[in-house]
Design a protein that fits this description.
single chain; about 110 residues; mainly alpha; 3 helices; elongated; Threonine/homoserine/homoserine lactone efflux protein; membrane; transmembrane
Length: about 110
Amino acid sequence: MSTGFQLLITTLVTALIVSFFVFLFYKVLQIRTKRDVRKAYYNAMARFWFGIFLIVFGMNSIIQFQTVVTYLVGGIFITFGIINVTHFNKARKYFKQNLPIEDEAYEKTKQ
């Protein structure tokens, strides 16, 4: 194997691990919060990073194992990953705009 191929695989595996741990981080934040908009924002962030995970997993499988079945399965993973990234990036932007409104309402109810 060439050094470039090994470097590519190492980079993909590193991105795979990092995206999975960031996904878990946002899922834990989602579970721990009690506020609804923040919970939805954390869910959107988690699903965004899960989409990145799916894309990288599909690319990694296609590059490492070059068979017809791998191309099909990797393509499916990449497709679902792109759908997750686009949809939940829009949701993330929407909920991020509503976070200050929720903070304001939360402060009013605390008083």
